Amino acid sequence: MSDTRKRKRSRRTAHDNGTRWESAMEAYLQWALDDLRIRRLRLNAGKDIGDIGVVYYRGEPVTIECKWTDGLNAGPHMREAEREAGNWDSPYPWILQKKDRVGLTSIHRLGQHMAYTRTSVLDAMLLDWDETMRRRILTGSRTVGRSRDITMITTRQFALLLNHGEPLGPDQ
Q: Cα(41)–Cα(48) distance, rounded to whole angstroms?
């Protein structure tokens, strides 16, 4: 098989990749926010509250749904995150999505993947931020979705947002 051809995904490889992706994002957020309490969550049938938990922004829970899919599918993924946020009364539904051809082998690479939410949610989270800090989060962002009402940033920018613009990683 040629290196440029994708391997066909089975249900098993999709599940295994999803587990690897969730574990990688759990470890990245634990490192970035210096908080080992951040955990992958168990499934709760129809009352799921996201894939990664114990993440808060200004005292409110953040719902984080992790996706490793062939296509972006921002609209359906966003609706799933919003439904799960509703199960937890979270005002902040987010998707962390694996970016094609970007690995999971280093902190730098983990910060290059995609994070997205509704533009209105991101605007609310940045409401009290000064212009310099807003630019740090929004540089390189783009709007996606049929209605262009979803804003995408990197997972590094997402972690900076959750960390209120403070440097990422444990204090040295």
A: 9
3-state class (DSSP) for residue 87: helix
Angle at 40 between CA 170 and CA 145, to 5 degrees: 95
11-162 adopts what CATH topology? Trna Endonuclease; Chain: A, domain 1 (3.40.1350)
Cα angle, residue 47 at apex, residues 18 and 9 outer, rounded to 5°? 20
Mode of pairing for the β-strands spanning 92-97 and 56-57 = unpaired
With 70 as the cut, is the pLDDT of residue 4 above it?
Answer: no
DSSP string computed for 19-49: HHHHHHHHHHHHHHTT-TT-EEPPP-GGG--
pLDDT (tens digit per residue) in 47-96: 889 999 999 999 999 999 999 998 999 999 999 999 999 999 999 999 99
Q: Tell me the three-class secondary structure of 133-165, residue by residue.
A: HHHHHHCCCEEECCCCCEEEEEHHHHHHHHCCC
Domain boundaries, the chain: 11-162
What tens digit of pLDDT does each residue of 22-39 get? 999 999 999 999 999 999
Q: Band of the pLDDT at 13, cuts 50, 70, 90?
A: confident
Burial class (CB in 10 A: 0-12, 13-18, 19+), 111: buried
